Fold these 2 entries.
Entry 1:
Amino acid sequence: MKSLDKILIGEKVFIDKISLPLKIKNRLIELGFLEGTEICLLHKSPNGRNLAYLVRGSVIGLRDTDARRILIFKEGD
């Protein structure tokens, strides 16, 4: 399964599973990171460690280490 840190800028995918510590997972859920939610990568920092995603109309920044633990799927998978 593919993780969120591997998608390309402009690519739209859906959240399948969040495998982060409960405190971080709950915060992401509050921000709209729910299973089945569409998410799009908007920007990567030059070093690739900071990522900006569009989720439910809001831009949310994540570290690559956290994005790596969010599993995704494409429509039709």
Entry 2:
Amino acid sequence: MAKAFLHYWVPDTAARELTRQRNPFSIGSEQLSPRKVKLGDTIWVVTVEDGVFLLLGRVIVGEVIEGRAEAIARLGTDDIWDATYTVLAEPGTIEPLQPVNISPIAEHLVFKSRSAAKLTVVGGKVNPQQLQSTRELTPQSADLIEECWETAEPRSNTGAQLAP
């Protein structure tokens, strides 16, 4: 069964990637090893700006490349993440990034975790330190995020602060 994860980008990275819209879409991280993510899994990319929890996009895992040199050789460019693992989107699943405010559902998200199954939300704001590790979502939480993504208004109407 495919899994779903939340993967955090700092606001500067989020703003840069929203502007760039890489294609083929890839994510690089030490946390996305083939032991953790598998083909068909979904990685939801999020950020937090001034406490506002923003969903930026999703990657359906098509391939996990190990080693920066291998990723450069396979992609034909060195304009990639500086990371051990590079996840490529499954062909045909690439969607444009767009910031979607998901702060209203933050308290409802549940992670597969022994110590911190839920986010702590204070005054409606999310502390990004809770998201520094890529976290696996329960199936119900993954469905909730997918519903937010699928029903999001176009970028210009989201009220998000990271508009490129």
